[in-house]
UniProtKB/TrEMBL annotation:
Residues 1-144 form the Nudix hydrolase domain. Mg(2+) binds at E52, E56, E115. One of its GO terms (biological process) is folic acid biosynthetic process. Substrate binds at K3, R24, T35, S133. CDD domains: NUDIX_DHNTPase_like. Its EC number is 3.6.1.67. Binds 1 Mg(2+) ion per subunit. This is Dihydroneopterin triphosphate diphosphatase. Its cofactor is Mg(2+). Pfam families: NUDIX. Keywords: Hydrolase, Magnesium, Metal-binding. It comes from Zemynaea arenosa. SUPFAM superfamilies: Nudix. GO terms for molecular function: dATP diphosphatase activity; dihydroneopterin triphosphate pyrophosphohydrolase activity; metal ion binding.
Protein backbone atom coordinates (compact mmCIF):
# COMPACT_ATOMS: atom_id res chain seq x y z
CA UNK A 1 0.00 0.00 0.00
CA UNK A 2 1.49 3.32 -1.06
CA UNK A 3 1.25 6.53 0.92
CA UNK A 4 -1.15 9.15 -0.38
CA UNK A 5 0.80 12.28 -1.42
CA UNK A 6 -1.49 14.55 0.57
CA UNK A 7 -0.64 15.28 4.18
CA UNK A 8 -1.11 17.57 7.15
CA UNK A 9 1.33 19.60 9.20
CA UNK A 10 0.09 20.45 12.70
CA UNK A 11 2.00 23.16 14.58
CA UNK A 12 1.38 22.42 18.27
CA UNK A 13 1.89 25.48 20.46
CA UNK A 14 1.07 27.16 23.75
CA UNK A 15 -0.70 30.49 24.15
CA UNK A 16 2.68 32.20 24.60
CA UNK A 17 3.96 30.68 21.32
CA UNK A 18 6.19 27.93 22.60
CA UNK A 19 6.18 25.22 19.93
CA UNK A 20 6.34 21.46 20.38
CA UNK A 21 8.91 19.75 18.16
CA UNK A 22 9.42 16.00 17.92
CA UNK A 23 12.54 14.17 16.74
CA UNK A 24 12.16 11.51 14.06
CA UNK A 25 13.10 7.97 15.10
CA UNK A 26 14.31 7.12 11.59
CA UNK A 27 16.42 10.28 11.24
CA UNK A 28 18.04 11.43 14.52
CA UNK A 29 18.50 15.19 14.53
CA UNK A 30 15.48 15.75 12.26
CA UNK A 31 13.04 17.83 14.30
CA UNK A 32 9.53 18.59 13.13
CA UNK A 33 5.96 19.38 14.02
CA UNK A 34 3.28 16.70 13.78
CA UNK A 35 2.95 15.47 10.19
CA UNK A 36 1.21 12.66 8.41
CA UNK A 37 -0.55 11.55 5.27
CA UNK A 38 -4.20 10.83 4.70
CA UNK A 39 -5.10 7.18 5.36
CA UNK A 40 -7.70 7.15 2.58
CA UNK A 41 -8.44 9.46 -0.32
CA UNK A 42 -11.76 10.49 1.23
CA UNK A 43 -10.44 11.08 4.77
CA UNK A 44 -11.24 14.73 5.65
CA UNK A 45 -8.08 16.74 6.31
CA UNK A 46 -9.32 17.80 9.77
CA UNK A 47 -9.63 14.10 10.65
CA UNK A 48 -6.13 13.42 9.32
CA UNK A 49 -4.84 16.24 11.53
CA UNK A 50 -6.77 14.96 14.57
CA UNK A 51 -5.57 11.38 14.03
CA UNK A 52 -1.92 12.30 13.46
CA UNK A 53 -1.88 14.62 16.49
CA UNK A 54 -3.10 11.77 18.68
CA UNK A 55 -0.93 9.05 17.09
CA UNK A 56 2.28 11.07 17.35
CA UNK A 57 1.81 12.90 20.67
CA UNK A 58 -1.12 11.38 22.52
CA UNK A 59 -2.81 14.81 22.46
CA UNK A 60 -6.56 14.67 21.83
CA UNK A 61 -8.08 17.54 19.86
CA UNK A 62 -11.58 17.39 21.33
CA UNK A 63 -12.76 20.69 19.84
CA UNK A 64 -13.24 22.17 23.31
CA UNK A 65 -10.10 22.36 25.45
CA UNK A 66 -7.92 21.66 22.41
CA UNK A 67 -9.13 22.63 18.97
CA UNK A 68 -7.50 22.31 15.58
CA UNK A 69 -7.27 25.47 13.50
CA UNK A 70 -7.20 25.07 9.71
CA UNK A 71 -4.94 27.76 8.26
CA UNK A 72 -6.39 27.27 4.75
CA UNK A 73 -2.78 27.07 3.58
CA UNK A 74 -1.23 24.36 1.43
CA UNK A 75 2.36 23.75 0.41
CA UNK A 76 3.52 21.59 -2.47
CA UNK A 77 7.01 20.25 -2.03
CA UNK A 78 9.30 17.63 -3.50
CA UNK A 79 9.36 14.44 -1.46
CA UNK A 80 12.84 13.73 -0.12
CA UNK A 81 14.37 10.87 -2.16
CA UNK A 82 14.98 8.83 1.01
CA UNK A 83 11.17 8.58 1.51
CA UNK A 84 9.98 8.26 -2.11
CA UNK A 85 9.82 4.46 -1.92
CA UNK A 86 6.74 4.88 0.31
CA UNK A 87 4.78 6.41 -2.59
CA UNK A 88 3.58 5.01 -5.91
CA UNK A 89 6.18 4.92 -8.67
CA UNK A 90 6.58 8.32 -10.28
CA UNK A 91 5.17 10.30 -7.33
CA UNK A 92 7.69 13.02 -6.49
CA UNK A 93 5.62 15.77 -4.83
CA UNK A 94 3.32 16.04 -1.82
CA UNK A 95 0.62 18.55 -0.94
CA UNK A 96 0.77 19.52 2.74
CA UNK A 97 -2.12 21.29 4.51
CA UNK A 98 -1.26 23.40 7.57
CA UNK A 99 -3.13 23.29 10.88
CA UNK A 100 -2.31 24.38 14.42
CA UNK A 101 -3.39 23.35 17.90
CA UNK A 102 -3.06 25.57 20.95
CA UNK A 103 -2.52 23.41 24.03
CA UNK A 104 -1.90 24.01 27.74
CA UNK A 105 1.83 24.09 28.55
CA UNK A 106 1.47 21.12 30.88
CA UNK A 107 -0.34 18.89 28.37
CA UNK A 108 1.07 15.36 28.59
CA UNK A 109 3.04 14.37 25.48
CA UNK A 110 3.22 10.64 24.77
CA UNK A 111 5.36 9.89 21.74
CA UNK A 112 4.91 6.94 19.42
CA UNK A 113 8.36 5.33 19.88
CA UNK A 114 8.43 3.85 16.38
CA UNK A 115 8.02 7.37 14.94
CA UNK A 116 9.68 9.78 17.39
CA UNK A 117 12.26 9.56 20.14
CA UNK A 118 12.29 12.95 21.90
CA UNK A 119 10.29 16.13 22.17
CA UNK A 120 11.11 19.68 23.15
CA UNK A 121 9.20 22.92 23.73
CA UNK A 122 10.90 25.96 22.20
CA UNK A 123 10.01 29.62 21.61
CA UNK A 124 8.66 29.80 18.07
CA UNK A 125 11.71 31.50 16.53
CA UNK A 126 14.04 28.85 17.98
CA UNK A 127 11.65 26.12 16.90
CA UNK A 128 11.65 27.42 13.32
CA UNK A 129 15.46 27.28 13.30
CA UNK A 130 15.43 23.65 14.46
CA UNK A 131 12.91 22.34 11.89
CA UNK A 132 14.58 20.27 9.17
CA UNK A 133 11.76 20.92 6.70
CA UNK A 134 11.61 24.38 5.09
CA UNK A 135 7.80 24.30 4.90
CA UNK A 136 7.61 23.38 8.59
CA UNK A 137 10.00 26.20 9.52
CA UNK A 138 7.94 28.68 7.49
CA UNK A 139 4.71 27.55 9.15
CA UNK A 140 6.24 28.03 12.60
CA UNK A 141 7.39 31.54 11.60
CA UNK A 142 3.82 32.33 10.50
CA UNK A 143 2.35 31.15 13.82
CA UNK A 144 1.81 34.65 15.34
CA UNK A 145 -0.49 35.52 12.41
CA UNK A 146 -2.70 32.50 13.08
CA UNK A 147 -3.23 32.84 16.81
CA UNK A 148 -6.48 34.57 17.76
Amino acid sequence: MHKIPESVLVVVHTADLDVLLIERADKPGYWQSVTGSKDTLDEPLIETARRELFEETGIVADGKAIALRDWQLSNIYEIYPVWRHRYAPGVTHNTEHVFSACVPRDVPVILSPREHTHYVWLPYLEAADRCFSPSNAEAVLQLPRHVP
